[in-house]
Amino acid sequence: MLRFLDAGESHGPSLSGIIEGFPAGVNINIEEINNDLRRRQGGYGRGKRMKIESDSIDILSGLINEKTIGSPISLVIKNKDWENWKDKKIRPQTIPRPGHVDYAGSIKYGFQDLRNTLERSSARNTAMRVAIGSFAKQLLREFNIKIFSYVTGIGSKSIKKYSDNNEQIESMIYDSPVYCPDKIASVEMCKEIEVAGEEGDTLGGVFEVFVPYVPPGLGSYVFWDRRLDSRLASSIMSIPGVKALEIGDGIKSAKKRGSAVHDEIFSEGNSKNNILQYYRKTNRAGGIEGGVTNGEPIVIKVYFKPIPTLLNPLNSIDFATKKEIRAGYQRSDICVVPAASIVGGSVAAWEIANAFLEKFSGDYLLEIKENYKNYKKRLQKL
Amino acid sequence: MLRFLDAGESHGPSLSGIIEGFPAGVNINIEEINNDLRRRQGGYGRGKRMKIESDSIDILSGLINEKTIGSPISLVIKNKDWENWKDKKIRPQTIPRPGHVDYAGSIKYGFQDLRNTLERSSARNTAMRVAIGSFAKQLLREFNIKIFSYVTGIGSKSIKKYSDNNEQIESMIYDSPVYCPDKIASVEMCKEIEVAGEEGDTLGGVFEVFVPYVPPGLGSYVFWDRRLDSRLASSIMSIPGVKALEIGDGIKSAKKRGSAVHDEIFSEGNSKNNILQYYRKTNRAGGIEGGVTNGEPIVIKVYFKPIPTLLNPLNSIDFATKKEIRAGYQRSDICVVPAASIVGGSVAAWEIANAFLEKFSGDYLLEIKENYKNYKKRLQKL
Amino acid sequence: MLRFLDAGESHGPSLSGIIEGFPAGVNINIEEINNDLRRRQGGYGRGKRMKIESDSIDILSGLINEKTIGSPISLVIKNKDWENWKDKKIRPQTIPRPGHVDYAGSIKYGFQDLRNTLERSSARNTAMRVAIGSFAKQLLREFNIKIFSYVTGIGSKSIKKYSDNNEQIESMIYDSPVYCPDKIASVEMCKEIEVAGEEGDTLGGVFEVFVPYVPPGLGSYVFWDRRLDSRLASSIMSIPGVKALEIGDGIKSAKKRGSAVHDEIFSEGNSKNNILQYYRKTNRAGGIEGGVTNGEPIVIKVYFKPIPTLLNPLNSIDFATKKEIRAGYQRSDICVVPAASIVGGSVAAWEIANAFLEKFSGDYLLEIKENYKNYKKRLQKL
Amino acid sequence: MLRFLDAGESHGPSLSGIIEGFPAGVNINIEEINNDLRRRQGGYGRGKRMKIESDSIDILSGLINEKTIGSPISLVIKNKDWENWKDKKIRPQTIPRPGHVDYAGSIKYGFQDLRNTLERSSARNTAMRVAIGSFAKQLLREFNIKIFSYVTGIGSKSIKKYSDNNEQIESMIYDSPVYCPDKIASVEMCKEIEVAGEEGDTLGGVFEVFVPYVPPGLGSYVFWDRRLDSRLASSIMSIPGVKALEIGDGIKSAKKRGSAVHDEIFSEGNSKNNILQYYRKTNRAGGIEGGVTNGEPIVIKVYFKPIPTLLNPLNSIDFATKKEIRAGYQRSDICVVPAASIVGGSVAAWEIANAFLEKFSGDYLLEIKENYKNYKKRLQKL
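Above: the input entities. Below: the structure tokens describing the complete assembly.
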């Protein structure tokens, strides 16, 4: 069983993470983790802080010669502007931002100074979840499972057409300033961000996590908390800013009839996953039926709200005076949906890797590979 | 910490459940549990099996004189038609239904007979989750927290207008054959179900869970798995048939600007929850900001797919012959969204009760009440 | 991951249990479970209640044709004298027994009537743990791992000599009225029990859990809660009446030098487990080094206190009057160490099975067997 | 609920730890943590490495102005000789030490080089558990609960008499080179260590954890894993080198009769804990009955084996040649029982703090204090 804890405040010295249960014998490419971290910091619509930091990972334990040894993996991401902050005298903050947890958090913990909440609740801490997810991604890739995540909408603008070639999608995501695999939509989205920014406002959007080549049989229907859809929902919904999600065509399906929703099963022909001899022509279920992967790509669509720190003042109250107040905020990000898409891919990778290890177990890579190979062999005879 | 396990197959002798961690000193109204069970079985669009069974709960432990004693609570719901089934010779089933887990489940567990999957994956087992959730509801009501759940859409038909009076909503839900608090929409939905049924098809829909008067401060932003939105998402998504969910106006918000999304905070005036002196005029966040309740009602919208057992044959394969086959199924339910809304309320109640106990702890009701009272007293001075 | 919950009061209708995570495809022998249950009820030194009940297991879910299907397994043991109790008017009990949890339990939960504690804290509920452990034993036996547990001391009497033949030990345990694999010691122990009983007193003792043929590599040193010794300690110490335990020669070792404690490793020769080519001539470590099985038999010694319900009155207080009082109790058991040895074997089996499944995983027996076979094959090349 | 993860290898750059669930508003004294760390490194019988390192804690998150904020607490202890090690070319180790996990660990994880196991399994990592336990100790002290731990035996030498004055015990522990609150025994123990060291051997011993003033009602009998004795056993047994433990007079009690074992309850008079009006004159139960604290001091006795790295060669095998070999080891520690006693106190503190928070809950210190105060008030009326 994989598990982790992470820690760290936005203006503290660093973010920390510890991964436990990661199998031995996996080569870890640090440059890849840093690449994920950089992409989380990027995307059109970001404010200035991101430019200061340029995250990179330090691995303090769990690897010898860049290979995992089964022991807990300790991770650190330094906050680069910590030096500038650490001796600053900071005034208590007492005016909560609508849409942010500083209001509810301070009530919960009895804080007078909202900074006690802000520091931890900042989306800054998603950097560590990206690093941790990158370990899961690298493990999954040993089994040819790859996680794609990309933006499909920002504000009122949406993607128009998808390529059906995974490699092409990947390169288009990399080329787009908003991580959207559609050139024309990307341009429109950037425009939308610019306009919102000029008007002191912020934007949300939609992103998608797409996981082809996942084997059938991950997750289970036998008890609710073992369902993979439940676990993905929990993980995705925990990303700050996410307010809704669907598996496959979940929202549209609710309005349709069963005959137009369920994915018929076919034999032989062009099964894409090379594991089963059966396949579907449609994938409205998003690769999961009854909480278990069915061999088709996992598809999750995620709805992300605009960030709550906006230049335009909203009405709020001041805990110090107990009076209403209109408060403007310092300029920050306008849109972080591209960044959120990276986080989404990372947390999904974690859940899928966990379900994978539950099924194929093993303490070291070679052992897991043998277990997996034998499963696939048995499926051939199905 | 509340936890439970449940067990039981669709055609076995009974469903079982055990609740652990439930505080002592809570009076349990059995009739209320049975009422929830009956409502789960009902709703326009149900097939015949529901009429046979008429579920009722047996409590085998954890209560003395109808009051909890802090010990594990053991629950049983007998399957009334077990007597008819137990000696039947049943042929192995080898043709999976598209949209159902019988395909993926049999692959996962290496079953030749799909019945080994079907028996457990049947939505029949949600009856026990309703009974378990009913305990959570009864605990929450000791603190004046009430869970509403109701249907807002079936197929292409949707609710048009809501009452803003909670008691009125409640009685309208009870009066509607589809548990929808809008009389006209209810009629339309029933009609839609009839037509679909005549054409051998099935329907999904949308339901809502609504929890007013929940105190601020449940859940936490400090670590991802303590966020209440994450836990609700996990729980709701685990209901068989659910494919999407949103908190508050999650989907619409993704297309709007921040200034039109975040709920401004106001002082004094008409705070509805009687706990805080601050309040909102809007509740697009659905009562949760940053994973923590903010004192406004929790609102969750849930998207439910049409059930996969339909009269009209879909294409599938036969594991026995490895060939494609078109298979028609026996008549069953046409639409179970009303039933699903009951399950949704139950699982949400469970998660909220759990978060409530985490914050206010205590081994017995009196202790928890004192802890809660003191919290509310401190909030007055906020 | 295996998990379970159990429930039930001493004078309620039944004990209940649910096992989750048990693999599919395992044939379950119900008679064996009942045999374990009968042995838990037996042993010289038991009072009369045991004779009334004669436990047997009902399995309500999780098996089809006596084979597990991967779904939760629901278990019930009926309390046979429930019929006699259910309508009795029982006076509140307010005088706690020294050595029993009725004192601390009533304080914790705010109970006025100690029966609210007594009913659950009764050792009666270990019957369900035996049934649950029996599933683990039957799973382990598919891999030739067998759990022995037997009494080595009662009061001042101890076993003198052990057979080194496992089959002989087994038959001697079965033949002894106190489950002790030494005929002469058994007679002495029975005598000691008789004398104590005549004098209105009770006796404790020592039992041993012995697990030969367990493979090396179960448990892990990488994080504390994954160590098998830690998990066994937790499980064994949770048996009502257990106050101490040691792995191997743990207590004696604390007084010796390292050179006289650690088990030297030898090559080839008479390795007993048929898995490794290396072995030990001594087993003072009790089969576990650093929290991980080393291929030698697991040996746990367990120290059990005399039961607290004694005929001879001890000093106590009455919660109703707040005064001291000397209270005699109804006759019950004199010594339950033989019964406790059965419980000990059961809970140890559970932990070992859990560690086994963590390493070899798999959703069904065939899959686990393949994974295990491949592990053993790799060990040959070590 | 408190939880933590820790990480770090013996010759890596540092040990890491993350604590989650620690309440807000607790002042943390860093010097006290460092004092615990220093004491873990000390004690007569230690080798040279301890002198090099001199551990101290860095706190990277979770505190603002030395006060906790409810967010995860990130901890680092630097390995001071890391600089000397990091560029060393280290030969693979292939000869396992009897008594050490390098044998079983390498088999489990498929390692050819035992260093992959050694680095993590080193008792070095107990330093982080001490630091983490120090947080628990500081939390408990806010409620006047103090943890004592001290050595009572080394090799064949044992403590002769105890003071019954807690403050005196504390100062005697501090004054003793082996952390033993008996001057004469301390001298004998040091002597024993010297002799063993000269003969190239190692020694184990016995230590005790003693927790007066703990309130009644921590832990629960209702389900096995909630019992405090079970949780303490698990935690204590997980300390490298521990092979046995007893609560109170667990071992002696197994040979006695019930009337001589159970602690009679008395009214009024000299109750020491100032919480209850009832008390005991004896404490053979070690403060825990039926898994729940009864208001008397918790007493745990822990049996520790001699460390397995000894100068005198024992027989082993070489995984590289598959042949037997006698291997001498570099000089290291002779006896680490004093250090282990510090670890024991730390892990016990953690479990007790966790049970304390389960009962009294609360997100911040003030809230917990109110909850606790009200509990004590209710107990007065008992």
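Note for the figure: The radius of gyration of chain D is 22 Å.
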